[in-house]
């Protein structure tokens, strides 16, 4: 292999080496710099050389994932608020229906001449209202 490379300790301005002066097998080794089996450096080698860039990539990726998670939680909170509102409306509607049924039952019980049904219904409705419903 007749090609010579400038030494790093000789001068600050290296002499140009033409690619035609290199034998065919040396092109691959010279182009990648480290000469290990003619392959480019692996991921770990690149990570060790560019630690700052990989740390920045890792941090930015985590920020992206946290932002997506936060966005998902925001929409989940909005859905829960809507569901809560719908449940309150349904509860209010049921309360109005129950009051209507109670008044209708009491009105029909008042028509009974014996008064037993009316007193029984009043007792039931007072117990249900005093139990916290």
From TrEMBL:
Segments for region (Disordered): 1-45
Domain of life: Eukaryota
Compositionally biased intervals (Low complexity): 1-20
Protein name: Uncharacterized protein
Organism from which the protein derives: Dendrobium nobile (Orchid)
High-level lineage: Eukaryota, Viridiplantae, Streptophyta, Embryophyta, Tracheophyta
């Amino acid at each position: 292999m007749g090609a010579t490379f400038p030494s790093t300790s000789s001068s600050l301005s290296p002499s140009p080496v033409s690619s035609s002066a290199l034998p065919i097998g040396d092109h691959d080794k010279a182009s990648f710099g480290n000469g290990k089996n003619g392959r480019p450096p692996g991921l770990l080698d690149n990570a060790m050389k560019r630690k700052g860039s990989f740390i920045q990539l890792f941090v930015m990726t985590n920020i992206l994932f946290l932002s997506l998670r936060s966005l998902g939680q925001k929409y989940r909170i909005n859905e829960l608020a809507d569901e809560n509102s719908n449940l309150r409306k349904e509860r209010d509607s049921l309360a109005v229906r129950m009051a209507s049924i109670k008044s209708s039952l009491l009105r029909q019980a008042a028509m009974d001449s014996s008064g037993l049904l009316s007193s029984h219904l009043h007792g039931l409705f007072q117990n249900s209202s005093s139990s916290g419903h």
